[in-house]
Amino acid sequence: MTSNELIVDLRGRLIATLDDFWDAVSEPCGLPTWFGRNLDAWSDTINSRGISEVIDSHDTLIVHVDQQGLFDGNQREAEILAGIFDGEQNRLVVHGPA
């Protein structure tokens, strides 16, 4: 059995802030215009489901980012965001420099 995966590849795009992250995932994840753009709303969206038809129509969400900007080092917001992904149904993959 193969998993129905939604892959959002943000590599090559500078994600310096959480707002940049929301801007980057909004369209490919089908986030509604009323989406809260905060960590609690993101957690509800990917873990509880029921907010985005795009995410809900896939078994797995995988987001790829570069290890730069928000994801370079130990920024608290990035750590909290990464913690929302469960590593199974929802995965955040941070790619180091090539």
Task: List strands and helices in order, with pairings.
Layout: E1 5-9, H1 18-26, H2 39-48, H3 53-56, E2 60-66, H4 76-84, E3 90-95
Describe this structure in words.
With 98 residues, the chain is an alpha/beta fold. Helix content is 33%, strand content 18%. It is built from four helices and three strands; from the N terminus they run E-H-H-H-E-H-E. The chain has a three-stranded parallel β-sheet with strand order 1-2-3, with no helix packed on it. Helix 4 links the parallel strand 2 and strand 3. The longest helix has 10 residues. It starts with a strand and ends with a strand.
In brief, what are we looking at here?
This protein is 33% helix and 18% strand.
Largest sheet: 3 strands, parallel
Number of strands: 3
Radius of gyration: 13 Å
- Strand arrangement, major sheet: 1-2-3
Average predicted confidence as pLDDT? 93
Poorly predicted runs of 5 or more residues: none
